[in-house]
Amino acid sequence: MTDLSQLSNQQIRLARRPVGTPTGDDWQQTTEPVQAPPAGGLVVKTLALSLDPAMRGWMNEGKSYIAPVGIGEVMRAGGIGRVLASSHPKFAVGDLVSGMLGVQAYAGLTAEQAGRAGLEKIDTRMGSVTQWLNVLGMPGMTAYFGLLDVGQPRPGDTVVVSGAAGAVGQTVGQLARIKGCRVVGIAGGRAKCDWVVGELGFDACIDYKAGNVRAGLKEHCPKGVDIYFDNVGGDILDEVLARLAMHARIVICGAISQYNNTAPVQGPRNYLSLLVHRARMQGMVVFDYAERFPQAVAELAGYLKDGRMKSREDVVRGLENFPEALNRLFTGENFGKLVLQVADEVTGSR
Amino acid sequence: MTDLSQLSNQQIRLARRPVGTPTGDDWQQTTEPVQAPPAGGLVVKTLALSLDPAMRGWMNEGKSYIAPVGIGEVMRAGGIGRVLASSHPKFAVGDLVSGMLGVQAYAGLTAEQAGRAGLEKIDTRMGSVTQWLNVLGMPGMTAYFGLLDVGQPRPGDTVVVSGAAGAVGQTVGQLARIKGCRVVGIAGGRAKCDWVVGELGFDACIDYKAGNVRAGLKEHCPKGVDIYFDNVGGDILDEVLARLAMHARIVICGAISQYNNTAPVQGPRNYLSLLVHRARMQGMVVFDYAERFPQAVAELAGYLKDGRMKSREDVVRGLENFPEALNRLFTGENFGKLVLQVADEVTGSR
Q: Residue limits of the Enoyl reductase (ER) domain (chains A, B) (predicted)?
């Protein structure tokens, strides 16, 4: 058993509520001794953390689908870790686990905290550690239930997904293709577009940084858009609204274009297209589907195994680089699911 | 049989596409001789016409759920008429009919045109002529299918409806109450609010002209809004979005606040509330439910008969007053379903 008293826990805490894009001053780096696990609890060494657009929302005050991170608290983050010490009946030393570990090198959890953190053992025969933060983790679950439960794809449907090379988008598009849909991605830059078409098998991808989303949608969705899986909001949502097919479904997963706004959110001006096309726009939060995660993980792991699905993770190293790494999501610099590698022991991307 | 050659057909045609609120110059009044009915067709004398917010949309160019009215064409309008002459197998002289008669004193229709106009006999034992343009007509059908099929009310739900004293709103609210919901209206002015609460049995009504919609929603919807039936769009839609209950349903029926805009439509800035509350916003067009109209008419007529439902129509007289009358919808001057009485033979509102 590791001598915990030798370890020091590096942490990143929320120092204040950011206005617009978070800056270094919004964070505080702290160090604490690692404590012995509480009775019935455990200590987990963080291996890798998931960096997600939703984290920006958790930093804001106000009612949302989850309580905000408090000022002075360790920043909330999902991650993968290895159990260093445990008197929890479900977890043994050496187990690999996923859950809300927080932006820190070690997480000490009571049994009750482990439950709230959604701690579960993971099996790296189903996917690598980074894939467990991507296709087999929250982004994959979001893609799976958002597309299948909310979007309700039928073979032949035209599915458009924004943030196509990102964590959620890559799985949405590949899953839609597997379900027999025609898939059009929207991504920033030629490299991402080439990858989702060439590697992931999307039917087309529109490079929004190159310009004309409207013309691209017209060219690649001649019969209109049956499902739009929206990760970005803003102008792109409006362009897709203008191209809906009858009875279209829009899955509202996020609106990354709006998260650092200091002005009010840009509402979709073309929302009356919902009326014209008898269409619906529906929001979803992945945590609602927790009971069905195992079924989704099994299905997606099968696709990874048989090669019908690929994944790409963009790995940044070092807990101290968390603040800068997080901001790469909002500039679109990341290419693939953004992962912060916290300890050396991480199975690489595919 | 009436001597048709003695009749002249007064008509109102669309002279040009309005910019903003329609003005007198956007209309052209014409007079034509009434022709003998085409073989297999009929001539209908218009008794009353339905004036609806949707008509403003029909005057605009561009793709919508229905083709725009062409420049120079008789303005499209639904109405009730009496058959003056007929060689149509389904209609006999003297029958009362409803359908798209247009803003004209007489409609001459081929069998094919009668089909496209949705011509159907009406039974005034089920409701008065004006009620056949209201509860038993398109507004009632819109309320019925929008609330029940799209909104899917459950007993105990809190239902909010804007334009509460208007044609669609009055039926939405009463029907929701009959289905066991708590009903909160939003209307302009004390008189309308008093009427929907005192006469129609709404649980509360917020006077948006008096000010604070936000405070009113907070007071009257303490558990949030389960169903919002939206006839108005704009700021009110945003206020309701900010008060949604989990899994709320927003029925997008119209957006009268936006129809005369010369600026772009105001998109709902609070649309991410759909995500937070796992809610959906869905558009509907009443024509999609045509096959089920008889079932809805029978149910609503039953409520009128047993007194569980009331109706109010605001009747303006004279075809030539159509342009001014239509604009009353956009100022909110009408109180109840706006009807244009074209001929003297009209059963009045009770």
A: 20-340
